[in-house]
Amino acid sequence: MNNTTASYGYTLPVFACASAIAALFRLQKRKINEKVYLDLVEPSEIVTISINQIAKIQQNQSLAITISNPGDNLDLTRNTPIWVIVELKKYKDNQEQVTIQGGEGVGKQVHNNFKDAIYSYAEKLLRYNLQFYLTSTEKIIVTIILPEGKKLSRQTSNEAFGIIKGLSLLGTSGISRPLSTASQLQNCQEELQKKSRKTDTLVFCLGENGLSLAKSMGINSHNLIKTANWIGPLLIMAGIEKVTSIILFGYHGKLIKLAGGIFNTHHHLADGRLEVLITHGVKVGLPSKNLQTLFKCQTAEDALAFLRSLDEETKSQWSAKIYQSIAETIDKKAQSYIHKYVSFNVAVGSILFKRNRSIVVFSKTGKSLFNKLIKI
């Protein structure tokens, strides 16, 4: 195996925090170099972040800019500018000393009253570092701006999970884990080898949402592997390790790619989702005018919503027919992919879920394997 160590970078909240510190320093007339120091909190580690630009824009406001560096990772936020405006005010009793809000390019949470998509780690990081520099008479309003956020969000699955109009400041750590690098693949392969010695059924969870949902549905952790985008190599490894059965468990907008023969699901490499949907629409006999509408959908989630609305209007079951066809094709394509490289029969089933974490479809094999795992 390749033992090259991937270089780690930092998550967006870290760069936002660095920008905020620099902007606050400008208002407090502290000496500002080209870098600032901050504590990542998770993990507890002091790091140095470069400041790209800084300027005072009003008497009590300043702006600082950093540039995202996620390390050796196929991350679309690489080189993204993170702007932070800090407004300095007088502190009064019973007020928050640090108020954090999203500006242009920071997403909104559809399922949480359209609150800014600034999550707990980002808030904790900013408060912890900024409060250290505030006097007892100062308070600040921190506005995070991602100028390219709206544009970049169109290349993500954010809308599928209820984040609109921009990117989210997500993460549980300041370290950007290189999920799409060769070293991460090696880690997944090693985890697969270890778990295959304890169970004959593995569940490949595409990302954190798949892992979380699989656990909540009662699947034991010793069966679960978080795969990121490395589906193909892990299927081959499963065959080599003589794993007898695999469940592919993921968001339908990701997992659907396998029905098109795409076994690395990273958005930088290939898409083909709508093409797969249209192909299976033709296969099950969806009328031409509906195929045309399907072709115009912007996302897989839009396509599923259209099919379900069509079902309601026409009292039909087009969505079920199309997605069942896709799920069965995913199973067959995955098995064929393994057989190309390994002469060992692996039963493959699939489970697809939608953005609200409800199940869209089980393949026949997926349902059977799932029932055995949770002992129905």
From TrEMBL:
Record field: transmembrane: 6-25
Reaction(s) catalysed by this chain's protein: Co-precorrin-5B + S-adenosyl-L-methionine = Co-precorrin-6A + S-adenosyl-L-homocysteine
Pathway(s) the chain acts in: Cofactor biosynthesis; adenosylcobalamin biosynthesis; cob(II)yrinate a,c-diamide from sirohydrochlorin (anaerobic route): step 6/10
Origin organism lineage: Bacteria, Bacillati, Cyanobacteriota, Cyanophyceae, Oscillatoriophycideae
Family per similarity comment: Belongs to the CbiD family.
Keyword line: Cobalamin biosynthesis, Membrane, Methyltransferase, S-adenosyl-L-methionine, Transferase, Transmembrane, Transmembrane helix
First-tier enzyme category under EC: transferase
SUPFAM superfamilies noted in UniProt: CbiD-like (SSF111342)
Ribonucleoprotein is among the record's keywords: no
Name this polypeptide is given: Cobalt-precorrin-5B C(1)-methyltransferase
EC number, UniProt record: 2.1.1.195
A Pfam family per the record: CbiD
PANTHER family, per database record: COBALT-PRECORRIN-5B C(1)-METHYLTRANSFERASE
InterPro entries listed in its UniProt record: CbiD (IPR002748), CbiD_sf (IPR036074)
Native species: cyanobacterium endosymbiont of Braarudosphaera bigelowii
Origin: domain of life: Bacteria
